[in-house]
Task: structure prediction
Amino acid sequence: MIRFCLVAAVVLSLTACGSDMSDLEQYVAEVKARKSKAIDPIPQPKQFESFAYDPGERRDPFVELRNDQPATAIVSSGPRPDLNRNREALEEFPLDALRMVGTIAAPNGMFALVRAPDGVIHRVTRKNHMGQNYGEVVAISESEISLLELVPDGFGGWTQRPASLTLAE
Result:
């Protein structure tokens, strides 16, 4: 009985694979009989038009600024970050990634405890730096660290802005 069912299944599957491909041959003949369309030619590239920059009274933006040039092009006044000092450990993290976790009152001043994203807790006091915008600690209270950050003003100079880090609950 099992052999009979197996033979019947094989016979039925082979009859489904008939050799009648007349519909396929008709479609191929129809596609070959279609007229082809003319292909549009490749468009010619536009002629390049050169442009001459006339700086007028302005300096050439492609020439390096020298120290003997007028100070109108150099912003020399205002606050600037000290790029020669060694960066502190908390300056590699953005300020919003740091968490104030407590304070320590000592005879020589107040210290704040700050947890970095890597899990290390750092002791911070006034004049320390933290955050990626050259933030300098200016005051520490029991619930807050006050900073002054130096951010670019968009005109080649720097501006100070206050920031703070509050005690995490």
Remarks:
- Helices lie at 2-15, 22-33.
- The longest helix spans residues 2-15.
